[in-house]
Write a structure and sequence with these properties.
mainly alpha; rod-shaped
């Protein structure tokens, strides 16, 4: 009977250790997924901001070009 009890205790200890390991792995993976999702969100935002900067640069360049053409037209008069 003593052998059986210690075997059950050993099995229980082994299962407890395995569950603790799985729980730690789960939490590590969950943290990693959260990190990647936040990074992805930040990349999306920076991409959008970058695109807005490019669009603003294009508009500014276009405005400067139009101003230069207008100035040239005035000079030609």
């Amino acid at each position: 009977m003593m052998t059986s009890a210690s075997t059950i205790e050993e099995q229980l200890a082994s299962l407890t250790k395995a569950i603790e390991g799985l729980s730690k792995h789960y939490h590590d993976q969950d943290s990693h997924i959260s990190y990647l999702m936040n990074k992805s969100d930040n990349d999306d935002v920076s991409h959008i901001k970058g695109k807005q900067v490019e669009e603003n640069d294009d508009e500014e360049t276009s405005t400067k070009h139009q101003a230069a053409e207008t100035l040239q037209t005035v000079r030609d008069l």
